[in-house]
Amino acid sequence: MAASLLRRHLLEPAPVMGLKLIVAVRQRLTEATNPPSSIQGNLFLNGLNGLDSVWTVAHRLRLTPEGAAQLLASLYRDQLISVIRGAPELQRLLEEY
After folding, report:
1. pTM score
2. What angle do CA 23, 28, 30 make, to 5 degrees?
3. Considering Cα of 42, then 46, then 50, then 51, what sign does the dihedral take?
4. Interval 65-85: pLDDT, tens
């Protein structure tokens, strides 16, 4: 029933569901960039290896989907990561967070 409502565009999936499709990798730090100040942010950044989805990394670190979405948006805005797959899903997340 939910699938039929999604196909008819009567329901929209939550932006955090896009975490399953986003694959990101951390960029090299330069003199102009600084790593995140929180331990959780650093662990999340180190978990982004370009192979696992953001959802998998968040699950491994026991983060809530909302917390992972906030960290991902923050890291992307600070230009600490680049997206390998899931750019449209990331744009929806950026609009929300």
Report:
1. 0.80
2. 140
3. negative
4. 999 999 999 999 999 999 999
